[in-house]
Each structure stands twice: as C-alpha cells, then as structure tokens.
Amino acid sequence: DRVLRKIRVVPLASESFGVRSMCTYVETSDVRVLLDAGASLGPNRFGFPPHPREYEAMAECRERISKAAEKAEVVTISHYHFDHHTPSYEDWCYNWSSPEVAEKIYGGKLVLIKNYRAMINFSQRRRGWMFLKTGGKHAKRLETADGKVFEFGDTKLRFSDPVFHGPQGSALGWILMTTIEHDDERMLFAPDVQGPMHDPTLKIILSERPQLIIIGGPPTYLAEFRVEEDQVHQGIQNLENLVKNVPVTILEHHLLRDGKWRELSQPIFDAASRSGHMVVTAVEFSGKENNLLEFRRRQLFEAEPPSPDFERWMKLPHPKRKLIRPPI
Predict the structure, then answer these.
(1) Which of 12, 60, 101, 267 has its CA at 20 to 30 Å from residue 244's CA atom?
(2) Global pTM?
(3) Could you tell me which residues come within 8 angstroms of residue 53 by beta carbon, excluding any fewer than 6 positions away?
C-alpha cells in the first residue's frame, strides 16, 4: 500500500542498484523533477578497481537517468559531488560522464542548484563554478535554491538552508535537502546528511512532517579511520528516531557500502516495525532485489574474473582509461 498517491517517486540509481548515487525521479500532476542526477563508482575498495558487474550496473543506471531526463522539466543539484551531479568532462572510468551525457540531462531544464559561492568548501566551489560554464550553460534557467521555495501549480519544491554533509563542521561541506509537497502529501529528499549525524538537521526533517523520506545513512565503512565512531553512532540513533516518525524511509547511500550494513541497521528496522512503519532500500521500493556490489568487489574479482579485454583496459594509464569505455 503506497503511502503517497499524488506524488510518484521513482528511484533511478543508488547503492542498492550497484552504483554510488541517490538519483530519483519525482512526478506530480504539475511538475516532473529529477533529483541529483549523478552516478559514480568508488575508485578503490580493498585494493580493487570497479568490477565489470559495476560497470554494467552503471550503464543501466545512466540509461534510466537519461530517459527520466527526457521527461523532467526541473533538475536539482544538492551539492557538487559527482555522485549527485554529472560533470561535463569525459570519464568512463568512474562517472560514466561526457559533455553529451551532461547536456542531455541539463539541456533546456530549469536547474535548481546549491549556491556555489556561499556555505561551500573549496573543491565544491570550483566544481560549481565549472558546472556553470559547462553543463549549466545548456539549462533553460539556472537558479540557486538555498532556502527557497518554488511553486508549480499546486506543487511546492521547498529547499532547506544548507545543512552539514554529515557531522557538524564537516570538511565535506554543506548540502540542500528538498521537500516536494502536493496537496496534503510530502516527500523529503535528504542526501548525504549521513543519518543525519547533526541533530539540528534531524529537527528540520521532522518539522517538514514527510510521509516518505529518501535519506543517506552514516558511512559505517569509514568508522574509526575517516569518521569518528560516536558520529556514526549518532547517525544510527537519529535514524531510529526518524523512522518512528516517518511512515516510509528509503535508506540508502554511504551505509550500503558496508558489508555489514543490514546488521548495523537492525535497531533502525526494529524501531520502524514497532511503529508500524517501513524501511526499504531504493531497489526494494521499486519492487526488485538489492544489487549491492561495491563491498563485494574482492569476491567478484575472485568469483568472476574479468575478460582479457577488460584486464588490458584496466592496465591502461588512468587518464587514458577515462577516455575509453570499459569493454563489458
């Protein structure tokens, strides 16, 4: 039984589809929106580059994003990481991107973007500026969205003020969350808040009273060496609180890069079921089976060794590999 009847939510790419992304297509009777149209593969896990199966998943996700872009009138960018927007340079190695791919996504659209001049770290400021000069120049209109509301008939797109990409003071900068409201229905898109780890972000989410949320969990796979253990714990705890208050949670992203993600999330699933609520991955929401690939890289290379052609491609120098599609 769908919790939303007037807002159509279609996940297109994410960790449960086999890539790094949270790209989602949302449609109401007034407007068609493509949220965070990017997808990437993790460059290196356990000393292994992406496996051919990951490239197959990437090609499928890119195809879905491209088809959704044909229908969408609005495209959003919550922040400038490449799994959340598509750059205009050629890179078949990690981002499956090119000038043509980017133009197809952003061309002729109203593109609502994170302000690249304020509340932003250095690398994203540079990427935001680059986007303006490249993919963004194909947009029908480009507008910063931080803290703004955009109305399309009876549908509102409400963007949060910038919130932390994870914990308070995160070196990764800030992101925008998006609420899409139509009549009495609300869904909220909260990429890369990592739980959220930051309590004030949780307050903002709950104040929006969404019936469905798409949220990135904490990066448990980086716990202890890149992220503090207590921050990860905070992210899990806030998720427990969140699922008690939101009927449907689509849980995704960093958390699903961990082989133990399901057992680490058990408290979240328990809290939801006690409240009669539902927690699913993006793929499960679409009625399909999880295709989690990144944390299985080592096993994939052992169980399904790549073809000689792929082996040769893998040995090419990195800049060359970006310019040649992997033979899958």
Answers:
(1) 12
(2) 0.97
(3) 18, 293, 300, 304
Span 59-113, pLDDT tens digits: 999 999 999 999 999 999 999 999 999 999 999 999 999 999 999 999 999 999 9
* Rounded Cα distance, 185 and 168, in Å: 30
Report whether the peptide linkage leading into residue 196 is cis, meaning its omega lies within 30 degrees of zero: yes
> In the 8-state DSSP scheme, what is residue 184?
T
pLDDT tens per residue across span 121-176 = 999 999 999 999 999 999 999 999 999 999 999 999 999 999 999 999 999 999 99
Give the integer Cα–Cα distance in Å for 173 and 319: 28
Give the three-state DSSP class for 244.
helix
Task: Name the strands in the sheet holding 278-280, side by side, starting at the edge strand that comes first in the sequence.
Answer: 149-152, 155-159, 178-182, 185-190, 212-216, 248-252, 278-280
Tokens representing 182 are 């139509």
SS3 of residue 300 by DSSP = helix
Q: Of 39, 79, 69, which Cα lies nearest the Cα of 177?
A: 79
Cα 85 to chain center, whole Å?
9
Q: Which amino acid is at 274?
A: R
Query: Who's near 152: CB < 8 A, 6+ residues apart?
Result: 28, 30, 31, 74
